[in-house]
Amino acid sequence: MSTTTKVEKKECPYCDGKGYFQLILGGSETCNSCEGTGKKS
Questions:
Q1: Which domain of life is it from (predicted)?
Q2: 33 CB contacts (<8 Å, ≥6 apart)?
């Protein structure tokens, strides 16, 4: 049995840590919440 330390990911909840939104019509838009970093501020 191995013990692993749980690493908590601090991803932006709006863009799932990607830093951008995929647009329906094509292309992408920078996430305003995390300003493109993908991390929770």
A1: Bacteria
A2: 12, 13, 14, 15, 41
Measured distance CA(32)–CA(19) in Å, rounded: 9
Q: Which residues in the chain land under pLDDT 50?
A: none
Residue listed under structure tokens 């929770």:
40
Cα–Cα distance, 38 to 41 (Å, whole number)? 9
Contact 34, 11 (CB under 8 A): no
Q: What angle do CA 16, 31, 14 make, to 5 degrees?
A: 35
Specify the DSSP element, H or E, that contains 9. Answer: none
